[in-house]
């Protein structure tokens, strides 16, 4: 079995593999994800709506809904560029793979407006 990860692991975590932000396979989309988040933050005074980010990425040839969903965790992590808020937002249907009945939360760009 071949395993690609952003760190050494004995048993790779599927989420860590999908949320790859460092290898040549994962970095291009992770960079597009970060750019989309930053563009939203610029337009909305630092606020980032996950629905708007998804809409910016849907036409990307390497868009993968699982990778998109997994990238929120490292983006909001210790070395990330977003902060998770408690402000809920309903997940929009377009590109959400059947999650439109669920909600998520807004994010804020670290350090204020991008």
How would you portray this structure in words?
The longest helix is centred in the first third of the chain and has 17 residues. With 114 residues, the chain is α+β, with helices and mostly antiparallel strands. The protein has one domain. Helix 2 crosses helix 3. The chain has a 3-stranded antiparallel beta sheet. The relative contact order is 0.18. The protein is built from 5 helices and 3 strands. 35% of the residues lie in helices and 16% in strands.
What is the count of β-strands?
Answer: 3
Helix content: 25-40%
- Give the domain tally: 1
Q: Please give the radius of gyration in angstroms.
A: 14 Å
Order of helices and strands: HHEHHHEE
Strand order of the largest sheet: 1-3-2
Total number of helices = 5
Strand portion: 15-25%
Q: Which structural category fits the helices and strands?
A: alpha+beta
Low-confidence stretches: none
The first-to-last residue Cα distance is: 41 Å
Mean model confidence by pLDDT: 81
> Could you describe the largest sheet, including whether it forms a barrel?
3 strands, antiparallel
Shape assignment:
globular
């Amino acid at each position: 079995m071949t395993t690609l990860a952003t760190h050494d692991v004995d048993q790779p975590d599927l989420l860590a593999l999908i949320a790859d932000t460092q290898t040549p396979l994962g970095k291009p989309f992770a960079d597009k994800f970060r750019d989309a988040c930053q563009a939203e933050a610029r337009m909305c005074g630092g606020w980032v709506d996950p629905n708007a980010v998804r809409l910016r990425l849907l036409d990307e040839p390497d868009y993968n809904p699982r990778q998109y969903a997994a990238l929120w965790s490292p983006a909001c992590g210790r070395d990330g560029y977003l902060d998770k808020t408690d402000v809920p937002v309903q997940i929009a249907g377009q590109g959400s793979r059947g999650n439109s009945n669920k909600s998520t939360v807004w994010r804020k760009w670290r350090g204020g407006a991008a």
